[in-house]
Write a structure and sequence with these properties.
It is a single chain. The chain is built from 22 helices and no strands. It is an all-alpha fold. The radius of gyration is 35 Å and the shape is elongated.
Length: 565
């Protein structure tokens, strides 16, 4: 081998006194290229047609050696020889006496080029380019798949790299699946899979090979969920994860094989669709963390370990901007999904992001971020994000832009703007909520009756049809600002001090002026129990001060529920 001869010569030069200087890159190229050309020459000596695969392999190896030695002209001529060999292998060029003579003469010209590598001139470059063009023309026009692959920069070497690394990832996934089937808490196989993903992640053209990027994202997301698991896993999770990993191995091996053969994988292959379905099922089956107040009665509220420092920290401005950039990129990725399966997989990948944001710490902006994340996640799990990707992506992008600009804006305005986006996301599933121009301005809503607060039971009085707390009924400044914006959009007009001082039609009693007994506005008996059930559902989506207010109201309802109607 050329490498063995080079090692021998280098060692001899270091051990023998008075020996010449060690060989350089040019000398090594001359040895290696000469060996490849000798093998090509020997391959053409028999009368029988040569092995086409070996002819292509040796021509490609010669081209790679020339590229490594920065001999661009020789590499170009070797590329022409490789094109002729591929034409013979694919049947575009018959192997006859003329083809054999042309190939032999090309090998002889390449030997001359290699000998002149140290004193290469522009005239040699022109002769190498002419030889490459002649050989490529004789080899015939490549297939459409090969032309498409070469147009986006995937030559034979890149396709072989994808095939090799895809096979390595599939092997790691298969081993991890078999291990997790028997031991779901084993984390070492997950690290082996992540390590196997790294080489393919470094391929510049990876984003041009869908669904490979989505496959890698899905695998990493599943590994992230498994890495956060602690304690005894749920029953059957080992079998579920093993099936998911084995289907991922099948899908990525199939996609890598298509890249090697055709230059581009099928983004809607049956293997990828099945993997996407299993991943969506796995992500949806992950249990949410629910507050203890929703499943137990707290007799005495203690102090968490670490005191106040154990409470969730308020999101800083830098974190908000970072989350905003991520949401904008996620919206663009969702809109650019070339297939329905990729769109569904990318939407459910966002669900993990929304789940993390829904546990944001205190503060007006952080609470609005959590509410938006909860609404967006519900849109994903209900299928709205997949069925209406453009509208959903537009709202996610708006939220991202609001958070990106929050670094230099007012927190109250940021919270109010996020509240509006959250309301728009929640209305995506309502056909009647489609934006239509109003036919006439709607009258302003009458103000709510004053709320007495002399007794704890007064907090439990009804104010019309009850429902879970929403952004429209939020008592803070953000909720008030959003209600005002809705009234302005409906045509209420600008605020008027004269109307407030003079009194309008909306301030007149609606029952003829008769006083109303306050006791008729209180919950009792069955109505109190029904209200408690509604608050139970609302508590599942509340946090912080809102959750504590719901708990206080439930405590008052307990007393009212045992009173007769």
């Amino acid at each position: 081998m050329a490498t063995e001869r080079l090692i021998y010569l280098c060692c001899s030069s270091m051990t023998q006194p008075g020996a010449p200087q060690p060989l350089g890159m040019g000398d090594f190229f001359a040895l290696e290229a000469g060996e490849y050309l000798d093998r090509l020459d020997a391959l053409l000596q028999p009368a029988a047609p040569p092995a086409a695969d070996e002819l292509v392999r040796l021509a490609r190896a010669l081209r790679g050696s020339a590229l490594m030695a920065s001999q661009q002209g020789i590499a170009r001529a070797a590329m022409g020889l490789e094109a002729l060999a591929r034409g013979v292998r694919e049947g575009r060029r018959p192997w006859d006496a003329a083809t054999k003579q042309i190939t032999t003469r090309a090998i002889d010209d390449l030997k001359i080029f290699v000998r002149k590598a140290a004193s290469w001139t522009d005239a040699d470059t022109a002769r190498a380019e002419a030889l490459a063009g002649q050989l490529e023309q004789l080899g015939g026009r490549p297939s459409a798949q090969v032309r498409a692959a070469e147009a986006m920069g995937l030559d034979a070497g890149a396709r072989a790299f994808v095939a090799r690394e895809g096979a390595a990832i599939a092997s790691a996934l298969d081993r991890a699946g078999r291990t997790l089937r028997s031991n779901p808490l084993a984390h070492d196989p997950l690290q082996h899979v992540l390590k196997a993903l790294q080489p393919l992640r470094g391929l510049a053209a990876l984003n041009d090979l869908p669904p490979l990027p989505d496959l890698l994202d899905g695998i990493e997301q599943a590994i992230g969920e498994l890495s956060r698991t602690s304690g005894a896993p749920p029953a059957g999770v080992g079998e579920t994860v093993a099936e998911l990993f084995q289907m991922a191995a099948t899908s990525i091996a199939h996609a890598a094989r298509e890249v090697a053969e055709r230059g581009r994988p099928d983004p809607e292959s049956a293997e990828f669709r099945k993997f996407a379905g299993l991943l969506v099922h796995f992500m949806d089956s992950e249990p949410d963390i629910v507050p203890i107040e929703t499943v137990a009665t707290i007799v005495h509220r203690g102090t968490p370990p670490g005191g106040e420092s154990a409470r969730p920290a308020t999101l800083g401005r830098l974190e908000l901007v970072s989350h905003g950039e991520h949401l904008r990129q996620a919206a663009d990725s969702l809109e650019r999904a070339p297939s329905a399966t990729q769109r569904e997989l990318r939407a459910h990948t966002l669900a993990g992001t929304f789940r993390a944001l829904s546990s944001a710490g205190g503060g007006a902006v952080a609470e609005r971020v959590a509410e938006f994340a909860q609404a967006a996640r519900e849109a994903v799990t209900s299928g709205i994000a997949v069925n209406q990707p453009a509208r959903f992506a537009a709202e996610v992008r708006k939220a991202g832009e609001i958070l990106t600009e929050s670094g230099s804006g007012d927190e109250t305005a940021t919270a109010a703007a996020l509240a509006g986006v959250t309301l728009a996301v929640r209305r995506l599933g309502d056909p009647a909520a489609a934006p239509t121009p109003p036919t006439r301005p709607a009258p302003p809503a009458p103000p709510a009756p004053p709320r007495p607060a002399t007794t704890p039971a007064d907090r439990a009085r009804p104010s019309g049809p009850s429902r879970a707390p929403s952004l429209e009924s939020s008592p803070d400044l953000a909720g008030t600002w959003m209600r005002y914006q809705q009234m302005v959009a409906a045509g209420v007009g600008p605020a008027s001090l004269e109307e407030l001082l003079g009194g309008g039609a909306s301030s007149k009693p609606t029952n003829g002026g008769e006083p109303v007994d306050i006791r008729t506005l209180l919950y009792k008996g069955a109505s109190a129990r029904q209200r408690a059930q509604e608050l139970r559902e609302a508590a599942k989506r509340a946090s912080g001060e809102s959750l504590r207010a719901i708990i206080d109201e439930v405590c008052d309802l307990v007393v009212l529920a045992i009173e007769p109607e």
